[in-house]
Amino acid sequence: MQIPAEEYKKMCDAASKPTDGVRCAVKAFLIGGTICAFAQAMCDALLAFGTEQETADFIVMLVLIALTAVLTAAGVFDRIAKHAGAGTFVPVTGFANAVVSPAMEFSSEGRVLGTASQMFRIAGPVLVYGSAAAVAYGFFYWLFR
């Protein structure tokens, strides 16, 4: 059965609501800003207790990744992301979500063939490109220094 293009467009328009870009941008800014403010407050607290800057940065990243992984596994992160949109994709939280989501999706196939093999489905290309780019940049830096 073939649907005419005009009728298909009408069906699509009826099924999808128009997006309020300003409202979405404000929500993304507020929720993303809250995540960043939380991270900064955690870093400031660690520094106030005498932690070195490099160690504090590492701890904050670790906490954000672990918290995002737990919230993703509990199904909470997706509900937050539904309202925040791009605000939840502050690089560390977005990456943690991108690793945990496919791993959860394929956990029914077993630990090795399911979870472990699918964990880097989305994040894998980023890791491969990052590693290859680092080697290439390092090689050219060494070659032309």
Notable traits:
mainly alpha, 145 residues
Structure description:
By secondary structure, this protein is mainly α. It has one domain (21-144). 79% of the residues lie in helices and 0% in strands. It has helices at residues 5-15, 21-48, 53-74, 76-84, 91-105, 111-118, 123-144. Helix 3 packs parallel to helix 5 (91-105) and helix 5 runs antiparallel to helix 6 (111-118). It is extended and about 65 Å long. The model has no long low-confidence stretch (mean pLDDT 82).
Blueprint (SSEs and pairs):
Layout (H helix, E strand, L loop, with lengths): L4 H11 L5 H28 L4 H22 L1 H9 L6 H15 L5 H8 L4 H22 L1
Helix pairs in contact: 2-3, 3-5, 5-6
Residues in β-strands, percent: under 5%
Distance between the termini: 65 Å
* Helix residue percentage: over 70%
SSE string: HHHHHHH
**SS-based structural class?**
mainly alpha
Weakly predicted, low-confidence segments? none
User: So how many helices?
Assistant: 7
Q: Determine Rg (CA atoms, Å).
A: 21 Å
Shape, per Cα inertia axes: extended
Major sheet summary line: none
Mean pLDDT: 82
Q: How many structural domains are formed by the residues? A: 1
By DSSP, the count of extended strands is 0
